Amino acid sequence: MEFQLRYVKNNLSDIAELEQDLVGRIIDVVAKSPPRKRELKSWRQFLNENQWSNTIKQFTRDLKDIDTLDDLLWVFDKKGNFTNDVAGRAYLKDNFMKMLKSDEGRKALEGLDKTKLGQLLNYNNIKIQTSTKAQLVEDLIFNLDIPSNFNSIFR
């Protein structure tokens, strides 16, 4: 809660709404400017594999509720292993991508329909219709694994 209060205080002029209920998923902050949907995480270290389920569900639910990847931001408190340096950024990316690439992560992403996956990838209708859902999931994982794309969503 302390991190959320600090974040609100430091970003007050850009906050439109706090704790928006999106039918089964509460977004911590809705901002006035992009990225509009912001999830705040105050972790010291990444979750163990047996604790990934909830985070995977949160992330895929967030993907369902946005039109483009530019609409989403997950902000991590800069403590523990999540330091705001090269090592901390690598730690976050390595662990988050490991989670998404897991069988559980892929299965959750496959729960998104083809149209949503294509929309997030900015694919045209022909590309969406001629791709399998599994290929779209792999494309999304590949896209998120690109450092500039990852860093635009996870800070």
Describe this structure in words.
The chain is of the alpha+beta class. It has one domain. The protein is about 50% helix and about 15% strand. The protein is built from eight helices and four strands, in the order H-E-E-E-H-E-H-H-H-H-H-H. Strand 3, helix 2 and strand 4 form a beta-alpha-beta unit. Helix 5 packs parallel to helix 7. The mean pLDDT is about 90.
Tags for this entry?
alpha+beta; 155 residues; 8 helices; 4 strands
Provide the succession of SSEs: HEEEHEHHHHHH
Taking all Cα atoms into account, the compactness measure Rg is 16 Å
> What is the β-strand count?
4
Shape: globular
* Overall average pLDDT: 90
Alpha-carbon distance between the two ends: 18 Å
**Residues in helix, %:** 40-55%
Structural class by sheet pairing and helices: alpha+beta
- For the biggest β-sheet, the strand order reads 1-2-3-4
How many domains, as an integer?
1
Task: Return residue spans where pLDDT drops below 50 for at least 5 consecutive residues.
Answer: none
Sheet of most strands: 4 strands, mixed
How many helical stretches? 8
Beta content:
5-15%
